[in-house]
Amino acid sequence: MGMKSSYLSYKLIPVTTIVLLIGVFWYLVAIPMNSEKVSRQFKDLPTSEHVIKCWSLKKPKLPTPHQIITEMVNTTFFKKINSKRSLVYHGWITLQATLAGFFLGTLFGILLALGIVHNKAMDLSVMPWVIASQTIPILAIAPMIIVVMNSVGVTGLLPKAIISMYLSFFPVVVGMVKGLRSPDQIQLDQMKTWSASSNQILWYLRFPSSLPFLFASLKVGVAASLVGAIVGELPSGAISGLGARMLAGTYYGQTIMIWSALFAAAFLAAFLVFTIDFLQKITLKRMAIIR
Amino acid sequence: MISVSDVSLTFETNDGPVNALKNVSLEVNEGDFVSFIGPSGCGKTTLLRVIAALEIPTEGRVTVNKMTPDEARKAREYGYVFQAAGLYPWRTVSGNIKLPLEIMGYSTSEKKDRTRKVIDLVELNGFEKKFPWQLSGGMQQRASIARALAFDANILLMDEPFGALDEIVRDRLNGELLNLWARTRKTICFVTHSIPEAVFLSTKIVVMSPRPGRITDIIESPLPKNRDLNIRDSQEFIKIAQRVREGLKAGHTEDVI
After folding, report:
1. Which of A71, A89, B143, B188 has a CA 20 to 30 Å removed from the CA of B69?
2. Taking CB atoms and an 8 Å cut-off, how many pairs form between chains A and B?
3. At what angle do helices A13-41 and A65-77 cross, to 10 degrees?
């Protein structure tokens, strides 16, 4: 009972309040945004009907939440999963590239961090390049990666995964370098008194100490991976994936379609972040790092 | 067993060189309980770290069991207990004690036997499966001592292991440490800044003073090897404590002049 009421007051009530406020604001803004188009199509409507039309246009400037939700429900549950009009189909395509890129990025990030922590030369030379890599706009690099890889015959998932990786390795490197260096001097001296090898120090001390940092980085990394996969779908003229769906929406002025793809991406990101959060909680709890 | 002759150590800092140790000489015999006492900055911890090969002296010679300190470290000739227990939060008490044994490649059965033995020794029976956060500070430090004992090095180096504990717990652990020393016949070097602790525990008290870090007095204690806390009220105990205090004061006056 106590648990439930605290969950209600600490999570549910604040979250619902904000969602409701945003909803109200959204409907209000939708009126001036779509008003002009309604006036052009329908002459001399009474105010109440004018407002309702503003909220139910077929191609509005700003679609309302219920239009987006209706579109999402239709394209999620009432289309065949392998149909080009199914949101699940497009979401799955994007998810595959996201996960592949996330996996590669995490692996690359961890390897780079190990190099930086264990090798003085890498410590001094690699980090500036890692930071520089993130100052280049991904939108500029993505088409190049797609075009270059297409020209050598690599298409489909891999080029998108590479772009995902490019975005997601960064938080992993930064977090892991910090995490692998988190053991304090006493713990390192202790290892020295036991005459431990640097491999042993890594496995017994550095790696377990770094896990809280790794999980924090993974949460940022997985969201970045999704962005990377979507950006990778934009310039390639891809016909499937959430990015392609957004692009198609802009070609045909299908604002509802754009927004529903956008929402689908947001839900997917939230789902991925919560999954990692869950894995973090059970791992760290099992390791007794958190209670 | 441990021989320190004419050792000096200078740290280069941003404010210029600091003489952490200056011409320090000392002999520690097998079975001794030696305390290093002095105010902060007198180099007592540095001296212990030199013996453990965690610091390299700029001058002088140190041997540990007839080896250089670094050879002794690699041969795992000593166990080191740090100021903080430094237990791994993701390992249980017995997991923590097994850690050096795993690193040193002991067999599973040997690991189990040795862990049981040292848990007996520090009286942590029943707490094997507890995690560090479930233990009081005193128990954590006992686990850390057990860990340093687990691989049976015959030298035990202890750097203010009870410094962070309250006096009641500290008194009890001091008594336990003496018992443990009597039972295991180890050679112990013990850093402290408490006069009663040093006098109560030691067969030899090394009084040190700062700037530069040096030894001002070495006192061979006439107290019997078997002692309990009551000895602190004896005339002899008070006399030794006085001599330690004078040694500390002497170092201090020189410093002021």
Report:
1. B143
2. 50
3. 100
| A86 contacts A75 by C-beta, under 8 angstroms | yes
Is residue A190 less than 8 Å (CB to CB) from chain B? yes
CA distances from B60 to B9, B23, B43, B205, B215 (A): 9, 8, 15, 22, 15
| Per-residue tokens: A178 | 């910090």
User: Does A190 contact B83 at a Cβ distance shorter than 8 Å?
Assistant: no
Whole-angstrom Cα distance, residue A70 to residue A135? 39
**Amino acid A3: pLDDT:** 55
In this complex, is the C-beta atom of A208 within 8 Å of any C-beta atom belonging to chain B?
yes
Asked if A3 reaches chain B (Cβ–Cβ under 8 Å), the answer is: no
State yes or no: pLDDT of B257 exceeds 60. Answer: no
pLDDT tens profile B20-52: 999 999 999 999 999 999 988 888 999 999 999
CA distances to A55, A63, A234 from A29, rounded to whole Å, are 10, 10, 28
pLDDT reported for residue A5: 65
pLDDT mean over B118-125 = 88
Cα–Cα distance, B73 to B57 (Å, whole number): 15
Residue ranges in chain A modelled with pLDDT below 70: 1-7, 236-238, 291
Distance, CA of B241 to CA of B243 (rounded, Å): 5
Question: What ipTM was predicted for this assembly?
Answer: 0.88
